[in-house]
């Protein structure tokens, strides 16, 4: 190896300065031993030791122990080579860390001693830079984000990801105008953002645009870039991300959020969100409505305590939620706004927010109605009379009773302890097990409900059931449960049998069976349905019971009671008939109601006797149904019901028999009636006619039966309006009577006096019509002739009235002259004091005035009969009119020594003509005074049933009963001709009657010869009439 000589000492100072100030670490070591002899300050910094420490160390100690062996070899080779240079050696710092270095050096000979000088360059910074550059390049090449560098509007640098994003390779996209990869609608946006960054208006910007791929497709991209200087000119370095899926995901999220919002807003389930401490954050409309609020805002922000019935409910809810973390179908009780309780099921989560706070989110379903239905179901299950049971089907095909309701337990005698989880063959006899399990298998095979009837002997007794089995499938479709409902129809079947017997009884009744036959059948039915009974039927007549049927009772018993008087303590039969109530004697020996008959009954082996009376449709007693027994026996409730039903049937039957017998008697009577009689059904079809009908119409009975009677008798001259009115009356339930022109079989007509009425059965049901017919053709002809004669008489009367009216006017004129001259003559005679001659003038005056009154009456009557009298009807003070009439007639009454009285109520107002009413009262008072020689004449005014009453009463001679019907006829007097005692022609009362009629009033008379007469007038009242002054 070549060894250089040390430089001169003049250069030592220079070397020392370089040695001390160089940035690289320099060590000098013994080439033979490797002992470090010198170290510069840089070496102290590099290795972390001071110079003294380094000079005590061997060069091998500067390297990690695990590298010492390989570095020892390198040291020897360097000594041998004389110079060396190697990068990537590792030295160890005093703190144990490894430092990469580059080592260069040479071997020196100083004073005959070989030294080795090594210069160590710290490669850590270079290594960091290299690693960073490699990292950045790796990031650039492998980054998921696209990286780009833009300059002068073109793509300068781009990583593979950015190029692939737009469908290019890096080589294809570099150099392209940047706007060529931007969709046309976003190019203006992209250009403006590039301009702003290059102009320095913004340092960094981030925005979205629609990118344009090489194939023309578009996608959403997001760029983020900042302005830099590249190659001395401004450029933009940034990243680009493909956010198409993100944008679409956001859009989907928005749609999903909208859907969930709609679900939240419109769901029928209630949604809510609250704080843990009990503040309501949000509720949906359904929950608000559920709780009785119009809007969710009424609840949001308020404490949850307003919703809980009890605060303890909220505490239990929170405790359970914290323990479980979530609640599923948690039953809660809340209070509505109106105070009513709501039962609900909650599904709740305890949610932790990003800020660490907790809140409660949940849903609520209103199950108030469901719980109410469950309560009703349980009530029905517990209290229904139907037997309900559940049969569990095991995997091996066995049947186990899972549950039964109380009715099942009561009616079968099988308790839950007997049934629970036990095979049926351990509980029931083999034949019953085979029967019921066969039905269970039939239900399983059918797969749908089945229904059947069965009779079973169970611990509670023999019963007949109508059973329905319903298979209930599991969610997987397998049937592991059968629901059974069994209705006890034992009594129903018994009742059906009883109804069949009743039907046979009624068939015999309708077919006309005799009373004895019906009673015997009734006894047989009673004995069939009442075990051990011996039945009898007794008919009631005039206080006694008479035997009708007793097929199983001994003759001696029949004789004992047949014809016996009813009464108390007369045995069960007599007591029942007497009290008209059922009598249930369970022990004849100790019952006081058997009295004198006890020993005879016991001697015949009878120990108990029940008796129930039966009645007709109108409640009349018809008889008694009796049941005797050979042993002491009290009736069960259902037996009492059967006996009562049979007694009712006996009442119906015996009433029908009695009605039939009465009809037979009636038919015999009707057959003798001379008038035609026809009976029809409700449609008018003939059911029965008598012989007189056949004689009247010419039809035989067999020709009319079943035919409509209108078709038989009506013809073209039959008045349809009269028929319509008759039908209407009959439909209203009223009898109809009319004369109709009917036709016989041979076509000849006759006038028929028809009376028709509805027919009813004993229950009051309408069953048809009965009609009576009489040929009145001759009578009609006579009436026609009489009517013609009446019309001629009325015409003559009218002519007479007209004549009298004219004559009255002609006579009144000279009478007025006579009265006037008689008055003048009387005055002249009075002046001359010739009193004897004045008597003649008085005679002339009275006669003329009498004749004038007669003429006025005739004139009034003629006006009335000619319908020319006009009345002024108005509210009239009746008391005032009566007072005036009494005052006018008072002198005449005093002249005869009579007391004329007026008795009147106040405020009596009638609708009348006051002048004509005054005329009526004066006429009645005049007659009363005329026919009364002593006593009084009284006028009474009052009210009677809403009418105004005016009564004139006297104590005169009275009117004979024979004359009363003619009292108001014109020109009629009780005493006429030479026997007439009082003056008059008999017109006054006729006029009174007609005037009262014209005022819509009524006049009546009551009289007794020798006792007096009372006339009563009733006039229409006017309410609230004027007060009488």
From TrEMBL:
Principal location: membrane
Compartment annotation: Membrane
Any coiled-coil regions, as ranges: 772-806
Taxonomy, superkingdom: Bacteria
InterPro entries documented for this protein: GAF, GAF-like_dom_sf, HATPase_C_sf, HATPase_dom, His_kinase_dom, HisK_dim/P_dom, HisK_dim/P_sf, PAC
Catalysed reaction equations from the record: ATP + protein L-histidine = ADP + protein N-phospho-L-histidine
Chain ranges of the PAC domain: 203-255, 328-379, 450-501, 734-788
GO molecular function: ATP binding; histidine phosphotransfer kinase activity; phosphorelay sensor kinase activity
UniProt domain PAS: residue ranges: 11-82, 152-201, 256-293, 662-733
Gene3D superfamilies in UniProt: 1.10.287.130, 3.30.450.40, Histidine kinase-like ATPase, C-terminal domain, PAS domain
Biological process terms in GO annotation: regulation of DNA-templated transcription
Keywords: ATP-binding, Coiled coil, Kinase, Membrane, Nucleotide-binding, Phosphoprotein, Transferase, Transmembrane, Transmembrane helix
Domain Histidine kinase: 806-1023
Entry's Gene Ontology cellular component terms: plasma membrane
Enzyme Commission number(s) from the entry: 2.7.13.3
Protein's name in the database: histidine kinase
Organism listed in the record: Rhodothermus marinus (strain ATCC 43812 / DSM 4252 / R-10)
């Amino acid at each position: 190896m070549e060894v250089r000589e040390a430089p001169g000492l003049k250069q030592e100072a220079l070397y020392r300065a370089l040695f001390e100030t160089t940035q690289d670490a320099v060590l000098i070591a013994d080439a033979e031993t490797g002992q470090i002899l010198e170290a510069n300050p840089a070496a102290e910094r590099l290795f972390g030791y001071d110079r003294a420490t380094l000079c005590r160390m061997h060069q091998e100690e500067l390297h990690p122990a695990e590298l010492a062996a390989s570095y020892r070899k390198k040291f020897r080779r360097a000594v041998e080579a004389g110079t060396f240079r190697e990068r990537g050696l590792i030295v160890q710092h005093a703190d144990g860390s490894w430092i990469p270095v580059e080592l260069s050096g040479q071997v020196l000979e100083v004073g005959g001693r070989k030294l080795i000088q090594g210069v160590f360059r710290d490669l850590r910074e270079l290594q960091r830079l290299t690693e960073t550059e490699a990292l950045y390049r790796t990031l650039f090449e492998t980054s998921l984000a696209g990286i780009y560098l833009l300059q002068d509007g073109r793509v300068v640098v781009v990583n593979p990801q950015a190029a692939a994003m737009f469908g290019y390779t890096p080589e294809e996209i570099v150099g392209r105008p940047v706007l060529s990869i931007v969709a046309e609608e976003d190019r203006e946006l992209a250009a403006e953002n590039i301009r702003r960054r290059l102009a320095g208006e913004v340092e960094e910007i981030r925005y979205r645009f629609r990118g344009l791929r090489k194939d023309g497709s578009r996608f959403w991209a997001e760029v983020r870039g900042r302005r830099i200087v590249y190659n001395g000119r401004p450029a933009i370095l940034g990243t680009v991300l493909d956010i198409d899926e993100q944008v679409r995901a956001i859009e989907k999220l928005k749609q999903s959020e909208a859907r969930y919002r709609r679900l939240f807003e419109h769901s029928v389930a209630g949604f809510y969100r609250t704080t843990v401490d009990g503040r309501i954050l949000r509720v949906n409309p359904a929950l608000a409505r559920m709780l009785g609020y119009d809007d969710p805002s009424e609840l949001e922000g308020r404490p949850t305590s307003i919703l809980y019935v009890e605060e303890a409910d909220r505490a239990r809810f929170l405790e359970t939620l914290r323990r479980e973390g979530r609640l599923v179908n948690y039953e809660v009780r809340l209070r509505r706004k109106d105070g009513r309780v709501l039962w609900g099921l909650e599904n709740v989560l305890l949610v932790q927010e990003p800020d660490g706070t907790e809140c409660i989110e949940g849903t609520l379903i209103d199950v108030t109605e469901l719980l109410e239905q469950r309560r009703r179901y349980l009530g029905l299950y517990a209290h229904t009379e139907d037997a309900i049971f559940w049969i569990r089907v095991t995997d091996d095909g066995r049947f186990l009773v899972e549950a039964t309701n109380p009715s099942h337990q009561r009616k079968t005698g099988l308790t839950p302890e007997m049934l629970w989880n036990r095979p049926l063959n351990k509980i029931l006899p083999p034949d019953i097990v085979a029967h019921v399990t066969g039905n269970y298998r039939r239900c399983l095979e059918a797969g749908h409900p089945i229904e059947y009837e069965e009779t079973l002997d169970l611990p509670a007794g023999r019963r007949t059931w109508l059973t329905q089995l319903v298979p209930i499938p599991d969610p997987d479709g397998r049937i592991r449960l059968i629901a059974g409902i069994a209705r006890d129809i034992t009594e129903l079947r018994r009742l059906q049998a009883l109804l069949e017997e009743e039907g046979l009884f009624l068939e015999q009744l309708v077919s006309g069976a005799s009373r004895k036959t019906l009673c015997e059948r009734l006894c047989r039915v009673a004995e069939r349905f009442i075990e051990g009974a011996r039945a009898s039927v007794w008919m009631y007549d005039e206080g006694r019971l008479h035997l009708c049927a007793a097929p199983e009772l001994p003759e001696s018993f029949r004789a004992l009671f047949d014809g016996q008087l009813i009464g108390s303590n007369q045995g069960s039969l007599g007591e029942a008939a007497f009290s008209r109530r059922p009598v249930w004697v369970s022990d004849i020996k100790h019952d006081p109601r058997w009295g004198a008959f006890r020993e005879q009954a016991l001697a015949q082996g009878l120990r108990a006797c029940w008796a129930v009376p039966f009645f007709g449709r109108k409640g009349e007693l018809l008889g008694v149904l009796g049941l005797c027994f050979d042993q002491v026996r009290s009736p069960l409730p259902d037996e009492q019901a059967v006996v009562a039903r049979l007694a009712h049937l006996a009442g119906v039957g015996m009433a029908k028999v009695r009605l039939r017998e009465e009809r037979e008697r009636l038919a015999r009577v009707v057959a003798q009636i001379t008038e035609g009689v026809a009976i029809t059904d409700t449609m008018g079809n003939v059911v029965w006619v008598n012989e007189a009908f056949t004689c009247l119409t010419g039809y035989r009975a067999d020709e009319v039966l079943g035919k409509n009677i209108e078709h038989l008798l009506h013809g073209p001259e039959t008045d349809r309006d009269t028929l319509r009115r008759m039908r209407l009356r009959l439909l209203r339930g009223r009898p109809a009577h009319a004369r109709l022109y009917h036709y016989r079989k041979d076509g000849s007509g006759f006038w028929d006096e028809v009376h028709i009425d509805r027919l009813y059965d004993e229950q009051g049901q309408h069953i048809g019509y009965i009609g009576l017919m009489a040929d009145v053709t001759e009578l009609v002809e006579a009436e026609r002739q009489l009517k013609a004669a009446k019309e001629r008489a009325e015409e003559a009367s009218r002519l007479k009235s007209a004549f009298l009216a004219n004559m009255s006017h002609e006579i009144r004129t000279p009478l007025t002259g006579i009265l006037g001259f008689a008055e003048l003559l009387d005055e002249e005679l009075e002046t001359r004091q010739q009193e004897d001659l004045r008597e003649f003038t008085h005679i002339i005056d009275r006669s003329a005035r009498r004749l004038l009154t007669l003429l006025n009456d005739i004139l009034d009557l003629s006006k009335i009969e000619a319908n020319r009298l006009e009345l002024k009807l108005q509210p009239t003070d009746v008391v005032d009119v009566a007072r005036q009439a009494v005052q006018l007639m008072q002198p005449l009454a005093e002249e005869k020594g009579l007391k004329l009285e007026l008795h009147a109520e106040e405020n009596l107002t009638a609708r009348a003509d006051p002048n004509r009413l005054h005329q009526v009262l004066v006429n009645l008072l005049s007659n009363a005074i005329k026919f009364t020689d002593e006593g009084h004449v009284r006028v009474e005014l009052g009210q009677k049933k809403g009418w105004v009453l005016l009564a004139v009463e006297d104590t005169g001679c009275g009117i004979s009963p024979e004359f009363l019907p003619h009292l108001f006829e014109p020109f009629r007097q009780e005493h006429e001709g030479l026997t007439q005692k009082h003056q008059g022609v008999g017109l006054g009362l006729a006029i009174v009657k007609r005037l009262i009629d014209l005022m819509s009033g009524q006049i009546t008379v009551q009289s007794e010869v020798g006792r007096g007469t009372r006339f009563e007038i009733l006039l229409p009242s006017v309410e609230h009439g004027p007060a009488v002054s």
